[in-house]
Amino acid sequence: MADDLGIGDLGCYGNDTLSAGIPVSTVLTGMFVCGLLRTPNIDRLAEEGVKLTQHLAAAPVCTPSRSSFLTGRHSFRSGMEADDGYRVLQWNGGSGGLPANETTFARILQQQGYATGLIGKWHQGVNCESRTDHCHHPLNHGFDYFYGMPFTLVNDCRPGGSPELDAVTRARLRLYTQMAALGVLTVAVGKTCGLISVSWKVVLGAAGLVFLFFVTWYASFGFVRRWNCILMRNHDVTEQPMVLETTAGRMLHEAVSYIERNKHRPFLLFVSLLHVHIPLATTKHFLGKSQHGLYGDNVEEMDWLVGEILKAVEVNGLKNTTFTYFTSDHGGHLEARDEHGQLGGWNGIFRGGKGMGGWEGGIRVPGIFRWPGVLPAGRVMHEPTSLMDVFPTVVQLGGGDVPQDRVIDGRSLVPLLRGTAEHSAHEFLFHYCGKYLHAARWHEKDSGRLWKVHYMTPRFHPEGAGACYDRRLCPCSGDGVTQHSPPLLFDLSRDPSEARPLSPGSEPRYHVVVARVGEAVKQHRRTLSPVPPQFSLSNIIWKPWLQPCCGTFPLCACRQDGDPSET
């Protein structure tokens, strides 16, 4: 699973728009020209397997998308979504995360005798009540081996990088501190000059309160790299803070070693890549090699990593007995920019990007499956499918049973991939931004039409742009969205870029389609039930007693393998 990869960044998806009847000139208007980013290893994976062109993330940002992928359920069913405010976990030292009563596909395969490993990004939480309870940790969710980052990459992970984590709140706290300090300083000067009649005890007390306020927030925000940018092996922190330049090589070594250690037994390996999330940590070998700057370099390095992992599968004689899957957690990040230009991906002809729950660019992702001799090579399927479908698919292939005591939103892809079913098992799919339903699609199988109804859409800034360039991500609710009544209707089978909304005048069945989707939404909402929110403020905030640490807190510092550092 790649991180923040745009579907248009892969060569094997670059020309799919041509088959949808989109003019060539339209395909070339994005940031990248199809085929100029070199992804030969992922392209080869698609040639040797089945490629899904309508594969959809269940959420447009990292944490909820990945929880849905792991459990086969919409993230709000486990509390891994937000009403407003924070949309992903913010700290390793927070108490929110994937609840222990959720069942991942790793847990079921572990029960079936599989070795289960996770290499790379987790971002589903770590602790609940103490620094070592690891209630949200991968090893408490069915994985028997973990090496990687319990959090996610952010700009703060690069020394000297511009602040990214909760940057707006951080700037406000800094401003409030400066204003309060200036106020105390003004009172002190007035007292010294005899202009203000106030005791020095009051002045010193106010100064102490300002200092205490500063320490309270700076203890977390002043050390983001040390608290969040860490590597763990199983339950132990091995590098704090992590060194970005060596991380990719270590991840690759761990993945290849895992395959070699388990080649004589059934195994599940989830390689959760840190590429291509900003700050786009790229090794020297790939810097400057692509035609599209640092982002292009990072994509091509990611493809090389995938190729090396596939090579390890083949060298160990496992190619024909291994079910291999490649995807991304959601669409490319359009708002990721610096003074040199775009740092996020290209979502092809699809409108929108990361953070946008309804528009296709935020949720349409690669879906490539390979199993030589079982799945037909070179097959391309245009049926709507979801990342949540991987859960029942993997469970079925591993000989397990899908839980019957909860709602499972995913559907097994085995019949579709093997060619025994013509259509996807999904008639309707529902697209959320946080806890807000932004859109729903109806696959009308008899006619082949694919309808998409939008109830809310983000307001782009500046007006007419394709993203929310005045902020890091488009919001899910409030003044940042437009609510549509009547809703917008698109026919994705004829207009995949969602450029031409239909009306009763242009589509005779407009009211019938909107009403049918509306009824499906009502039925879907009857399956919802309240659960404890994992993104509440009390769960999101940094708690020093929950912070993973190598050494003695707060002097947390170590190099790889837990050796204490000198700094």
TrEMBL record:
Q: Key word Iron present in the record?
A: no
Q: Name one GO cellular component term.
A: endoplasmic reticulum
Q: Which residues cross the membrane?
A: 20-37, 179-198, 204-224
Protein keywords: Calcium, Hydrolase, Membrane, Metal-binding, Transmembrane, Transmembrane helix
Q: Sulfatase N-terminal domain: which residues?
A: 1-399
| GO function terms (MF aspect) | arylsulfatase activity; metal ion binding
Check the record and name the InterPro entries matching this protein.
Alkaline_phosphatase_core_sf (IPR017850), Sulfatase (IPR050738), Sulfatase_CS (IPR024607), Sulfatase_N (IPR000917)
User: The organism sits in which domain of life?
Assistant: Eukaryota
Q: Name one Pfam family in it.
A: Sulfatase_C
List required co-factors: Ca(2+)
Regarding protein family, the annotation reads: Belongs to the sulfatase family.
Record's protein name: Arylsulfatase D isoform X5
Species of the source:
Ursus maritimus
The top of its lineage is: Eukaryota, Metazoa, Chordata, Craniata, Vertebrata
* Gene name, Swiss-Prot/TrEMBL: ARSD
